[in-house]
Amino acid sequence: MWLWLFAPFLIRNVIAANFDPTEFFKTRCEPKCVFEASNLNSTTIDKFPKNCATVCTDLAIDDKCDLTEEQLTATLQNMKHLVGSLIVISVKYTSVKFLAGLESVECGELDFLIVLNNKMLEVGMTSLNTINCSSIAIDNNKEMTKLNMPNLKYMYPSEVNKTEIKVRIDGLSKKFCVTTQEMYNLMGVPNINLDSLEGMHCEPPVPLTNGKVCNSSYTLIYPTEILDECTQYFGSLVINPANEKDVSKLKSVEAIFGPLFIEKTNLTSIDFLTNLKFISTLGYDTAAVQVINNPFLSNFSFPSLKKIKTNSHNGVNDGVIFINNSYTLSEDPSFCNFFWAFLGVDGWLYPEFDGKSCESIQVRYDQQPVKRSARSMGLEMMMIFVLSIFRWFGWAGAAPKNIEKYTKIYTDKGFHVACICPPLFHYKVPNGSSGDKMLPFIEKFEKSKGSAPVDPVIIHSFSMNGIRGIISLAKTTGNPKLMDNLEGIIFDRFACVSVCPDFLFCFSGPTRTFTHQNGKALMLSRPKVGYLSDEKRAKIHEKVNDARDFVISPISSIPSIRSKFSTYWYIHDKVQLPKRQLYFYSNGDSMVPIPPLEEFMETQKTRGCHVDSYNFGKSEHVGLCSKIGGP
Ligand SMILES: *[C@@H]1O[C@H](CO)[C@@H](O)[C@H](O)[C@H]1NC(C)=O
Ligand SMILES: *[C@@H]1O[C@H](CO)[C@@H](O)[C@H](O)[C@H]1NC(C)=O
Ligand SMILES: *[C@@H]1O[C@H](CO)[C@@H](O)[C@H](O)[C@H]1NC(C)=O
Ligand SMILES: *[C@@H]1O[C@H](CO)[C@@H](O)[C@H](O)[C@H]1NC(C)=O
Ligand SMILES: *[C@@H]1O[C@H](CO)[C@@H](O)[C@H](O)[C@H]1NC(C)=O
Ligand SMILES: *[C@@H]1O[C@H](CO)[C@@H](O)[C@H](O)[C@H]1NC(C)=O
Ligand SMILES: *[C@@H]1O[C@H](CO)[C@@H](O)[C@H](O)[C@H]1NC(C)=O
Ligand SMILES: *[C@@H]1O[C@H](CO)[C@@H](O)[C@H](O)[C@H]1NC(C)=O
């Protein structure tokens, strides 16, 4: 009756084949070694070919079997190879030790099943080393605490044209465990599907004849003591600042029976686990591989890795998680895809890099076909300039013609360039009016997402109005993720292309400005008036700024509202800038306070952005440029 429950297992090959059992047995057994009855009981026992080492039969031992374990042992002890199938179902025995001498099973039409045996504590087929069956089930034996199948290491599919071997080991005792030896063997089987294996690892681990097991803790809190010549770790392998200097000793490790956790190190690459083949986290509720907050980590290689078995039943992502490492890892899909291959494609178990799935990393990557080669320049690429309008020394109100010099640098290289020049400088945090003018470009970019490949966009922001333009854009779209799709941003305090053609840009950034600076900016961006000198006008604007700063300086310490009053805090708190950022600045710049700028860059880094910067040292604000003449 139970067999009906397993009908899907039992009849599967019927679909595939014009399978002829008689023929199958004939090619593998002498006629006297074929046991036709299948069901072993007191009626059929005499017909069993006791003296054959290879027996052909679909051997079934079920609740109707009226033999003792001793009788079964005596009958089956010479059988080393079983050809056909094995079904042990609903029996009263505490193990299958009566098959302890069996070395191999080769399935024909049916499968290997040990199921629904309520009294069974272990399998105990200690000699079994090969199962050639596409489907193996040891499940719903609710008292079973161990397999005791230490030699099972070879498995091949029996189904024609199939490669996968599906192993189902679940519905057993809560205390059920797989020894490290059994697990090592199972994980070494090519094309094995262990998704339905549940349980823990048995402690203590089985000692090795050619290798060394090293103990470590169950938790992820303590750095693992890295010893020489460990080939297996029993427990978590935790690498953090306390032990990162010893990682080269991990070359010998082949298997980790616990999670791999790498945190807060200065490592640039995970290239020391060259012999690691298996990771199994049975019984753990953390991800099998977690690599977090290693800012310099930009590469890894696991050249020997064969299998990752996670504790896959608790519904959370317990596969592979990379967070806050070098941006490269979550930008290049090959890193994510590498792990995907090990975790399978079964829906929810997927690697995550900075919260992104491999698919979304891939999509982003594919949408930017130009980007990869763009690093070598000379390619089509759209750029938006958010332009500064004024310059401190002698020149205000830049029009597109003043900017031509800069756009030419890009157009000469084959980039498309859009310039936006906001008309006025203002002491308030800007509204969305300049952003409205940029939006068509951004929208074009957004629209082509998902369909045709798009040209990546870089914003080149000049001076304070550049910052204001970015804020305005952020306001007008109201889309905090918008910048996430941009290729990058260049914060350029003051353009001086002519001086440093290799760098292109000299000074930078979002920083808090001085009131006299703002005052002058306000003056310069407005028309002259007959009744007031420029100095007077600048002074008045400065006073307005002073008064304003006096009022808002206490407010600036209140994070929830500071962005309403200061462009610096607006861009800091409200704008999610592109992932790649480049800053140019100089310590010697008396116009631009450096600490807030450096704080800003640090914050961007902790937000997972890739920040490059260049400090020109003693150089004064636009010092280099004004010598040569500037724009
Ligand atoms: C043994 O199994 C055969 C085949 O299922 C059955 O016909 C026979 O009645 C069984 N004998 C006993 C004693 O249960
Ligand atoms: C199992 O299959 C493999 C690969 O087809 C074969 O080499 C091996 O002899 C088979 N073993 C048994 C016991 O059938
Ligand atoms: C197995 O694959 C071969 C070649 O592709 C094909 O001819 C054959 O029919 C397949 N057998 C089954 C049972 O699907
Ligand atoms: C590992 O720990 C277990 C107990 O948890 C102990 O029995 C075993 O001897 C330890 N092995 C080593 C190599 O320290
Ligand atoms: C990592 O780098 C930082 C900064 O360079 C340094 O202070 C720290 O000691 C380094 N940590 C280790 C474990 O080398
Ligand atoms: C990453 O590491 C692998 C293996 O060490 C190496 O082949 C590859 O070139 C590295 N990639 C980069 C971008 O450095
Ligand atoms: C936006 O701000 C500018 C000055 O910064 C002002 O001229 C314009 O009227 C404002 N637009 C709206 C819609 O408030
Ligand atoms: C990643 O970095 C951000 C910013 O510092 C931090 O808030 C977050 O907690 C980090 N994530 C993890 C998992 O540590």
From TrEMBL:
Keywords: Signal. The keyword Magnesium does not apply. Pfam families: DUF829, Recep_L_domain. Residues 1-16 form the signal peptide. It comes from the Eukaryota. Residues 51-145, 229-326 form the Receptor L-domain domain. SUPFAM superfamilies: L domain-like (SSF52058). The keyword Signal applies. This is Receptor L-domain domain-containing protein. It comes from Caenorhabditis remanei.
